[in-house]
Amino acid sequence: MPQQPARGTRLFTVTADTLVAVDFGPRTKHRPPGPYGRLFARPGTRAFTLANLLARLPMGMFSVSAVVMIAGTRGSYALAGAVTATGLAATALVAPWTARLVDRYGQARVAVPATLVAALGSLALLLCVRYDAPAWTLFAAYAATATTPNTGGMSRARWAHLLDGDPDALHTANSFEQAADELCFMLGPVLAAFLCGAFFPEAGTLVGVVLLVTGVLAFAAQRSTEPPPSGRTTTGATTTTPPAPSPLRSPGMPPLLAVCLALGAVFGSTEVVTIAFADAQGHRTAAGVVLALQAGGSCAAGLLYGRVRFAGAAEDRYPWCVAAMTALLVLPLLAASLTGSLLLLSAALLVAGMATAPTMITNMTLVQRRTPDGRLNEGMTLAVTALLGGIACGSAAAGWTVEHLTPTAGYGVPVTAAAVALLVALAWPGVRTAAA
Q1: Residue predicted with more confidence, 5 or 75
Q2: Which end of the chain has the lower number of beta carbons within 10 A, N or C?
Q3: CA 206/CA 93 separation, integer angstroms
Q4: Which residues have C-beta within 8 Å of that of residue 131, sequence separation ≥ 6?
């Protein structure tokens, strides 16, 4: 039997009078690129994104590494939670000043020295734990990491600079950035828990320092996509225009930051409680995997959210996102209290994480709209600072609950924090008022 030609093949038959083309089917056509394909078709975007991902990965490693390292050597989750809370609180105070310098003098000039100082703080913490230094040295060393620049904010600032005037593309970029955050917080705890368990307790912190310094150096080297400093013109001359007002004075920003504070408490408490719960089950090294599932659900939801075009205002969606997050956080509490199964808890955290990315994407969209021109990195860093402050409070509250009650009871902390965020989003009109 003769073989049939493939579809899309054109054959020519010759008769005595004419030449006839026979078409065996449509040709394969190239599909147009999707929103993410169009996003990364822009020159320089892939380079700075890859470098920023490398710099951002340790953000999901440091706190888990510190908790495992300190709790494993000192035998106290309360001490571990207090140390990480102190470092995050210090970051909440220092980060806005670092971001202000980044906006005024440029990302490369400020981020590199700030990162080196933070790296020295992490190494000091490692040495204090390694050589059994007094407890107060742990607090001092971890507080020195407060100069860590907001790498995610700097990446978002580049997208805002490159996509000025294209809100749909900026929505896609913000969604990708939130998914990247979740990806780093998904892989970071797994990598940290593996390194600390498979090698030595300080391995997670050590590797995190190397990744952070390498990533920031590579990111700073991508100068073509860096937004111009607000303190200078594109030609390098000093500007004479007065600086834009502080983002804190922008209408609607304070209540939005209050919501971020409560959401941060959700993240911080969930992390500490999950580590303690897995440890109580005899599976400390599995804690990173469990936390990764929650971040994985958020990452998938974030990428899907970025492909959706919404007709309504982001201010109208925000309370619904927070409400969904609050409702889904009840699932881990039920799984831990009713079954005590680490497997079911993992599934519950996976589902609960699906509301995180849409909430944070909408949050960052509102922050960008309320931030004055020339202060974008500072505005986004204020949101991250509020999150870090909440993480510090949540970590401390969860550590106390785990120490004095039970790990299962600790899952009530993130539910309570999410409920507070929902109350603020509903009761404070500034959150739902569109920026002018």
Answers
A1: 75
A2: N
A3: 25
A4: none
Q: Which residues contact 167 (CB under 8 A, 6 or more apart)?
A: none
Confidence of residue 4 (pLDDT cuts 50, 70, 90): low
- The pLDDT value recorded for residue 300 is 81
Helix (H) or strand (E) segment spanning residue 111: helix 107-130
Q: Which residues of 174-210 are buried (b: 16+ CB within 10 A; e: fewer)?
A: bbbbbbbbbbbbbbbbbbbbbbbbeeebbbbbebbbe
Task: Look at the block and give the residue holding tokens 């911080």.
Answer: 268
If DSSP codes are grouped into helix, strand and coil, which group holds residue 321?
A: helix
- Give me the number of domains the chain comprises: 1
In a domain, 18, yes or no: no
Domain with residue 205: its CATH number is 1.20.1250.20
Three-class SS state of 313: coil
Q: What is the pTM of this model?
A: 0.69
At 184-224, the pLDDT tens digits run: 766 777 788 788 877 888 888 899 999 999 999 999 998 88
Say which DSSP state 146 is in: G
Lowest-pLDDT range of 11-20, 29-38, 54-63, 369-378 = 11-20
Q: What stretch of H or E contains 294?
A: helix 287-306
Q: Which residues pair with 21 in a beta bridge?
A: 12
Q: What is the pLDDT of residues 288-326, one digit of tens each?
A: 778 778 877 887 887 787 777 776 677 778 888 899 999
Cβ atoms of residues 191 and 211 within 8 Å: no
Give the side-chain half-sphere CA count within 13 A for 388. Answer: 27
> Virtual CA dihedral for 15, 20, 21, 24, nearest 10 degrees?
-70
Does the residue 34 lie in any domain?
Answer: no
Whole-number Å distance between alpha carbons of 287 and 275: 5
**HEC secondary structure over 231-252:** CECCCCCECCCCCCCCHHHCCC
What residues contact residue 73 under an 8 Å CB cut-off, 6+ apart? 129, 132, 201
Assess if residue 144 is contained within a domain. Answer: yes
Asked if residue 111 belongs to a domain, the reply is: yes
Token pair 């995050």 is at which residue?
88
The domain in which residue 133 lies consists of: 45-230+246-432
Residue 420 is predicted with a pLDDT of 92
Of 99, 126, 96, whose CA–CA distance to 110 is shortest?
99
Q: Is 241 exposed, middle or buried (0-12, 13-18, 19+ CB in 10 A)?
A: exposed
From residue 365, alpha-carbon distances to 22, 49, 236, 369 in Å are 54, 19, 30, 6
Report the DSSP beta bridge partners of residue 20: 13
Token pair 């309570």: residue: 416
Tokens of 299: 């990452």
Q: Which two tokens stand for residue 216?
A: 């920031």
> Looking at the predicted structure, is the pLDDT value of residue 233 above 60?
no
